Amino acid sequence: MRLTGAQALIKSLETQGVEVMFGLPGGAILPVYDPILDSSIRHILVRHEQGAGHMAEGYAMVTGRPGVAMATSGPGATNVVTPLSNAYMDSTPLVVITGQVSTSAIGSDAFQECDITGVTMGITKHNWLVKRAEDIPRTVAAAFHVATTGRPGPVLIDVPKDVSNAQMEWYWPETEADLDLPGYHPRTEGDPAAIAAAVELMLRAERPVLYVGGGALKSRGAAALIELAERTGFPVVTTLMARGAFPDSHPLCLGMPGMHGNYTAVTAMQRADLLVALGSRFDDRVTGRVDAFAPGAKVIHVDIDPAEIAKVRVPEVAIVGDCRVVMERMLDALDAAGLVHDEAAVRTDRGATAVAGSRAAGRPAREGWWGQLRAWQREYPLHYEAESEGTVKPQMVVETLRDLNPEDTIVVAGVGQHQMWASQYWRFEHPYTWVNSGGAGTMGFAVPAAVGAKVGRPDKTVWAIDGDGCFQMTAQELVTASAERIPIKVAILNNAYLGMVRQWQEMFYAERYSEVYLSPDLPDYVKWAEAMGCVGIRVESPEEVAPAIEKANAIDDRPVVVDFRTDAFEKVFPMVPAGGSNDDIVVHPNQAGARVAQ
Q1: Which residue in 259, 396, 473, 500 is the catalytic one?
Q2: If you classify domain 394-565 with CATH, what class do you get?
């Protein structure tokens, strides 16, 4: 069967099972857009290519399937660089296809030419410049394989216009060997000797912590994680990228560690004698000052990417492998060690019995460790002052959103104070219900990512919790949502500032507020929402919060934007100052005594 390169590209995507893609046409990619008219793939026309990339990310994060985005050459391609960088940092599988000028014009500074493979070399797992139409099926198959195996991540395929127009004989690569990927051999199983050594350390630990990162979710390992935690009785902390991997309501859950994590999670890691790092990379937001991080802890590090091992902290036991697979092998080893559940070892504050772990002969009891953890939880919970003089507190907005929405609501956040409040005050009970920009910290992520998440899971309620600064960066994608009938809901925590920057300037720059003030009224978010085909709602007092959320939840035929006018000077606590030790954690002023290390 003879096809053009463009037809072969679309047919290759269909063969890979692609159901939806996000993009915007232009000259160099135009030949590829023609066969889309005859394709089963749903194409969603974005208003900016950055939106296409973030939508593909949101789609991938809630479905586990690779997101697909397409853009033209030059500025179209460079507009996708930010999502590629974001996906690379957060290990999100993306396949991005860009148009390129004709092969004869490459290197001549032709109109809308850009060396996008060179630009993205450091922020993709791999990229390809396709020079022959007959290479397209193999390249597409290889791209999906690379994006979704090993440590997931973004890839890019750059297709010159003349390659799209050229003829080729259709085929499809039948085996992995046909993909021409020499040297690409991800390790998944984990070394049995290392797993045995890890389990022996786990059995001897007196103050253990399971330090769970995004890799637990990427590996589809949530069920194995719960079993491992319950079998060992180890407390669990879930990083920003792992929220939902372990239920917040579970008595073994300590919540989120890190710069804005809760006191117990942060301090538990500092005082631990064993950290079992599962798909986590010892990010600087979690460790604080590295030389002061968890000084008394031995480390077991499980990660599918060998480059992460010993990059920040040298482990006593290193296991390169798929997080889920390694946890399952650990469970097998625990079975062999005769570990059984000890249902009564730990009790929660509410008096309910928790699965606290297993006890085998000669193994240490951990009641003292759990007693200390529960004491920290009682003494230093998340805290904010209730509203005063009619001021809307952003934390209260998040709590009310949480309480008035289904437990499996998908929450999408931008970056800044609102992101931290969302992660702190929402209770995540299910995996793949939290979508945010972690490693790159990309402002403007929330709105397009929420669109992609809703496309991927149309059966779920999707709320984007955004800041007014973030919202202004990519709000135009609500036009896409309205045109495509994608009914997301957006809560703007509008404090009229670049809030996190303002917080730092207040705390560390003597209240010298340089270039952080926005405006509560410019733009008018209600009018802007309405102009984009959405329902706009404004909330200015605490008593309006719940009715506005209920009204938004009742609307399901178009997007809704709620402008919550929140306290302009509310800060995120706890906070570990940048460059400081986790022992320097600062909590709410009403809990000032907690700053002293326990």
Answers
A1: 500
A2: alpha beta
